[in-house]
Give the backbone structure.
Amino acid sequence: MTQLVVPPARPVFTSSDRDAIARLVDEALTSGSLTLGPVTERFENAFAARHRADAGIAVSSGTAALEIILRSIGIEGRSVVVPANTFFATAAAVLHAGGRPRLADIDRSTFALSAASVASALDNDCAAVILVHIGGVISSEVEEIARLCAEAGVPLVEDAAHAHGATFHGRAAGSFGSAAAFSFYPTKVMTSGEGGMILTSDERLAAEARMYRDQGKAGFLGGEHVRLGYAWRMSELHAAVGEVQLARLDSFLEVRRRAGSRYATGLAGAAGITSVPLAPGTASNYYKYLAMLAPGIDRDEFKRIVREDHGVGMSGEVYSSPLHHQPVFRSITHGPLPVTEAVCAHHVCLPVHSDITDDEVDHVINAVRQVAADLAGRALIS
Ligand SMILES: Cc1ncc(COP(=O)(O)O)c(C=O)c1O
């Protein structure tokens, strides 16, 4: 019998999805309206409605979405609280928008900023706080964090690059802060090839964001540049892919959530590997399935054996290296970050695809249980 091979990532486009995209692309090419046209507007409205936000502003990437939000808030010369455990772009966007990232520690149960770390980082210099919904998990402290920010008069920004369709007590990612940034990079739960979306229910912020994404122009057809914007538009062709993927989001979530609960059951009682449990009310989109390896296990060796002996490609961590270890961020100021250090060093992400089968999930469970138990046993003996 040939062994199942489970890749680390697998974007899903059925033949009917591809046909639907081809029709929309044909529509755009025939009309000659190739950017900021009707397909993009439909995609924006549908994505905003799906996450219960008033406005969606489609842009060229999740990174652009973050920078535009920060420029629209106005953070120049001030600090922005960023978790030390996030993707490069979260902190880079702060620097590009003229601010100073201030790294704060995370909570080990959510991999995100904790209310306590936000409370201790908020001061008069703080222009915004960025909460990242790591792996598609919205922190169970999100309402407390939003309250702390509101009391301090500091906008809360959601980096929802991982969190399409994720909810906490039924409230969608993108509806907790002043604005949220989503990414449609190919590995994400839904993709437009490349692209991003800003969600906000703040009319002023939405108007600013629309100007920034289109070279800072006061209006699409005008020639007056009133902000230092950039070419951050989304093309109609990307929006066509995004619109079709959005129509599939609920079915993707169903598959991913089924895989998530199968992993949780299948890993219960395993030696050397433990699922990261979700708090009550948290409905992850399972962008990543998060698990911790026992401290004595070497993650690189674990991943190599799982891949070479079992054909399972583990997906990338979120994140293997905290921001303050990245050479480009060495000069960023931060206090002690012990939880970030431990989480980054010891977690793994099991593969989850929007069409993953029960057989594939079971194969991964058997593989990781076996390899983690072997390595944990070896660590005990040595
Ligand atoms: C947490 C986080 N923020 C921002 C981004 C940036 O998104 P993009 O790659 O679309 O620019 C990513 C993308 O990988 C991300 O994971």
